[in-house]
Structures are given as C-alpha cells and as structure tokens.
Amino acid sequence: MRIKIGILHSTIRKEEKLLMEAARKKNVEIKLIDIREEIFNPQNYKVDVDLVLDRSVSTIKGLQALLFFESLGVPTVNRYEVSSLCADKFATSLILYKKGIPIPKFALVFSEKQALEAIKALGGFPVVIKPTHGSWGRLLAKINDKESLEAILEHKEILGSPQHHSFYIQEYVQKPGRDIRAFVIDGEVVCAIYRHSSHWITNTARGAKVSKCKVDSQLIEICKKASEAVGGGILGIDIFETKEGYKINEINHATEFRNSEEPTGVSISGAIIDYCIKLLKNKK
Amino acid sequence: MNLKGNCPICDCEINLSEGIEESEIFTCPECHNRILVSKIENENVILEEAPKIEEDWGE
After folding, report:
1. Are strands A4-9 and A51-54 parallel, antiparallel or unpaired?
2. CATH topology of domain A105-171
3. DSSP assignment, residue A39?
4. What are the chain A neighbours of B55 within 8 Å (beta carbons)?
5. Cα distance from N-terminal residue to C-terminal residue, chain B
6. For domain A176-273, which CATH number applies: 2.60.40.10, 3.90.249.10, 3.30.470.20, 3.40.50.300?
7. 3-state DSSP call for residue A60?
8. Which residues of B touch A (CB under 8 A)?
9. What is the pLDDT of residues B3-58, one digit of tens each?
10. Alpha-carbon gap: B3 to the closest alpha carbon of chain A (Å)
C-alpha cells in the first residue's frame, strides 16, 4: 500500500516544496497539515496518515503538534523528546556536556552579578548571550565588556518576556570566517555546508554564503555522537572549527536546507523521505 | 493554468507561478510586502497579508 506522510506546517517554504517533489518521485503520498487550521482534540481527531513529519516554522506550535500525534500513537519525525531537547539551547548543551561531546564553554544565570562571575569562569570577555529558544541568529549579542553586558541584560530584563530573563552565556569562539552545518539523519552525515560570513553570526538567514563542506572522519564521529546524545532523527548540527578540533554549537530539529542541495549535490529532501519510509518499514 | 490574485495591501494584480501552494509566502512585486497564499480555487488565488515573523520561527 502507498505510504502517506503528513507534513505538519504553518507555512509552505521551499523546503516543503522540495519534500513534496521528493515524495512524488518515491511514490509517497503527502498530506499537507496546516497546524493553524487543526483542532487537536484526541476524542475525535481522525488520523489518516502513516507518519507525521514536523516542518512547522513555529517551534512552539510544531512541538505541540508532535506531542499530540505521538499521544495518538502516530510515528513522528522527529520525536517530541528530540525536538523539545534541541529547541532548548541550554538543554542541548547540558546533554552534550554530560556525554563528553566537545562544545563551547557555557553557563546559564538569572542576574547580572552571576553573569559577571560566570563570564570570569568562562575565560572573560568577549562572550555571546543567546536566548535559550530562538533561531535565524536573532537576538544574539556579542558582549565585549562589562558596560555592554549591563546594557544588554537591563534591556532583556525590562523589555523581554520571562523567557528572556534567563541568560544563556557562551564563550566567544573565534571562527575562520565560517562555520559548518551538517545534515545528519539517523546518525549519518548526509552532507555538510560551510556558512561563510565576515560577520561573527554565520546564519544563512543573516546573509551567510554557502559552499560544500568536505565531510571528514572527525566530523562524522562528532555528529554521530551528538545525534545519539539527543535521540537521533533528522538534525541540522552547527559546528565550530577550533584549534582544539570540532565543537558543536547548536542542534536544529527542523532544519532548513533550501540553499544546501545545490552546492552539495545531495537531495536532502530525498534523504528525509527515505528516512520516513525506513521508519515505517521497520515498524511493520 | 494562469493563476492570478490581487495584493491585499496595494491591490496590484499578481501573476503566480504554477507551482505555488496554499500557505506559501511570497513578496509582492509592487509593494514588497510579505503575502500569504490563502486559497487556490481554480484560476483564482486568494491572497492575504502574511503573518508577522514570530519569535519562535525558524531553524
């Protein structure tokens, strides 16, 4: 019987169109599920897909939809546990640290006094302050001195929601004008890109240029370990190249890949659909 | 099929490519606002102003 995958979305981006095209080529039926139009009532919800693939641009809505489908026994990609862990930078750092996977030094504090002490222990300024939840390189701040720290924290405390009153601090890592985004499925590196920028923020959403990254054995090893640590699935792993070797910066649970198929020559969308098919076959 | 719709902000007529999907967001060629494809009914496309980018968007 033909496999039917539900794509959970809240807007259709190029990635979702690539997934639809890849599914068509593999004779997989796609049902687009706009989660903004759904009523997630377990008493009467009719499931008519074999698996759901979370592609929601909204992290919170995507996580809630995953939780709902999992509660109904529908296989989900990624699993809620994996996505919720990766959506939280502090939680991700903690699990990677616990597993002994190289990452930049980090700390979480709730006040300026503790921030100053934490920064001393991290090796001093500059540091980077990030929201624990967020993406596209938004609201990241490189803090060069105590005065900037005071200003940023005051703004966050007064203008930010309670979520912004937790200060995730990371040591500033000097990058060689680029970082790496590795596309990892089921622990295997499908392909990887360099994200080049003269700015210290190297997100493609912030204008970084993309080129193919040669995948070496160290990259394969660190990605496999990181994937195992967070529970596997489909991941976009952001990696710094440092003097001490690769370090994992962040892990993305619903990775965007529109700019990466062409330079790598790899059908990431096809690999995602293949993974969904494999999961369903293994389930039977 | 020749898909057409009107920008909900500047009212210009927009010709849309065939591969366009409901829930897709694009930029109006005239006013450069972000527009959402709300509904596709035969050749008629209903367009709305796209939702603002929220804090938890993206990867």
Report:
1. parallel
2. Dna Ligase; domain 1 (3.30.1490)
3. -
4. 134, 138
5. 34
6. 3.30.470.20
7. helix
8. 19, 21-25, 36-37, 50, 54-59
9. 889 999 999 999 998 889 999 999 999 999 999 999 998 888 999 999 888 778 87
10. 18
Q: Which residues of chain B does A133 touch, with a Cβ-Cβ cutoff of 8 Å?
A: 56
- pTM assigned to the model: 0.93
C-alpha to C-alpha distance for B50 and B27, rounded to whole angstroms? 9
Domain extent listing, chain B: 3-49
**What is the interface size between A and B, counted as CB pairs within 8 Å?**
53
* ipTM score for this prediction: 0.75
Question: What is the CATH topology of the domain spanning B3-49?
Answer: Rubrerythrin, domain 2 (2.20.28)
Would the pLDDT of A153 be above 90?
A: yes
pLDDT at A116: 97
Nearest by CB: A255 against B37, B54, B59? B59
Q: With an 8 Å Cβ cutoff, are A58 and B59 in contact?
A: no
Q: Which two tokens stand for residue A278?
A: 């494999």
* Higher-scoring residue by pLDDT: B18, A2: A2
